[in-house]
Amino acid sequence: MTEYEAVIGLEVHVQLKTKTKAFCGCSTEFGKEPNTQVCPICLGFPGVLPVLNRTALDYAIKVALALNCKIHSPTKFDRKNYFYPDLPKNYQISQYDLPLSYDGFLDIDLDGKDKHIRIRRVHLEEDAGKLIHKESTSLVDFNRAGIPLLEIVSEPDINSPEEAYQYLVTLKSIIQYLDVSDCDMEKGSLRCDANISLRKKNTIEFGTKIELKNMNSFKAVKDALTYEIERQKSLLSKNKAIVQETRFWDTKELKTFPMRTKEEAMDYRYFPDPDLPMFIITQEKIQQIRESIPELPREKIQRFIKDYGLSLYVAKILVSSKKDADFAESCLKAYPNKDKKTLVNWLIGPLLQEANTRGCGLADLGITPQGLNELLGFVEKELISNLVAKSVLTEIIEKHKSAATIIQEGNLIQISDTESLEKIAKKVIQENPRSVQDYKGGKNNAIMFLVGQVMKKSQGKANPKIAQELLKRLLNE
């Protein structure tokens, strides 16, 4: 790639989590029996009239403002005409020349440096249905048809698969903070298409654009772009022409394959939807929605660093989702010590490990800030070891009991009195003459093996700090 640079633009589609569809009153609930959440309007029966969902419009404006876009007023809806089995009206209600918003931007973090990605437009449209392919047949489920959909189109300012990945992660986080979509790619509520071309470095003219589809995860987007860069590079090095087309990402072959020639705007025969009027969005409405936008991830990261003395690395982990950020802040506020280091280490250590194991967030573990502080109190008073505390944490999550109850029921208070520990230490020294000789021969690490043996004999109850001091004293006598 030394001779070429990738030019990438992303089109992200986000389902808005309204209770009803964009232009009718049908439910948007996911997972219902096929074709049970439909009506004459979303099925495109003759003579029916669409009515715009006010909440969908408000949500769309909210996202546009969070992405620093300008709002078009008036704005209108258009018919995008194409014929496909999952499109019941044979056109999609979308927006063409007067989209809801335009000229925004999103800054992404790349190894501590910001990169500015321009947003061309954010517009509102309706989703299509869903095709279900069987062995020799294809079935159509229209439950999804008409669900309000945002299309967020970036300018071709992205130059690598890693930048594309970071753009998607940042965008998803902002949308989840706004609470307008669950952004669940498995449910299809967040989907991404990518446009990519190569051009020689230090040139302005774009190469031939390829559209990539069928990428069902951010990793898949990154992998598909990586593959496509190498494919196009190989063609260009052989002086072969790149054909403008749509290609799909095959998750088994890990390759892109031709799907169809790429359509242009003229192919869709856009024209204003005659059943929907122009919509005037007042400055009062824009200001009202702007004031409802919560603190977004970038601002929250900076505040966590300033208010709680966190590093950028830690702040980014804790702020990755709004629920986890709120939980972490509740823990930080409730923690009695001014130095938050112990708490932070537990949040991004044992708690995050438990969350990852269960495939959930920190806030979903079921432990309260007060419950976590109680557990850490036992550790800080040296009543239990860190190792025991981790096992207690697991039981708190699984059994929904307090730390005090679990420690009491399991008789887990660690042994700190020297008299009891000395007996165990003497026995360990007697049973491990080789490690004793290693320690006396200058191998200081041998002491840790002996401490481990004391912990084993005490069933994990020995205070490791006191055990180590005892062993050193006994060995040096």
Q: How large a portion of the residues is in β-strands, by DSSP E?
A: 15-25%
Q: Give the tally of β-strands.
A: 14
Helix content: 40-55%
Low-confidence stretches: none
**Protein structure class:** alpha+beta
Terminus-to-terminus distance: 67 Å
Largest beta-sheet details: 9 strands, mixed
Rounded to an integer in angstroms, the radius of gyration calculated over CA atoms is 30 Å
Number of domains: 3
Secondary-structure element order, as H and E? EHEEEEEEEEHEEHEEEHHHHHHHHHHHH
pLDDT averaged over residues: 93
* Neighbour order of strands in the largest sheet: 2-5-6-9-1-10-11-12-13
Q: Total helix count?
A: 15
Shape, principal axes of CA atoms: elongated
Descriptive keywords:
Arc Repressor Mutant, subunit A; 15 helices; alpha+beta; three-stranded antiparallel beta sheet; nine-stranded mixed beta sheet; 477 residues; single chain; elongated; 3 domains
Task: Give your account of this protein's structure.
This protein is an alpha+beta fold and 477 residues long. It folds into three domains: 286 residues, no CATH class; 115 residues, no CATH class; 59 residues, Arc Repressor Mutant, subunit A. The protein is 40% helix and 19% strand. The protein contains 15 helices and 14 strands. The strands form three sheets. A nine-stranded mixed sheet has the order 2-5-6-9-1-10-11-12-13. Strands 4-3-14 form a three-stranded antiparallel sheet, with no helix packed on it. The protein has a two-stranded antiparallel sheet with strand order 7-8. Helix 5 runs parallel beside helix 7, helix 12 packs across helix 15 and helix 13 runs antiparallel to helix 14. The longest helix has 20 residues. The radius of gyration is 30 Å and the shape is elongated. The termini are far apart.
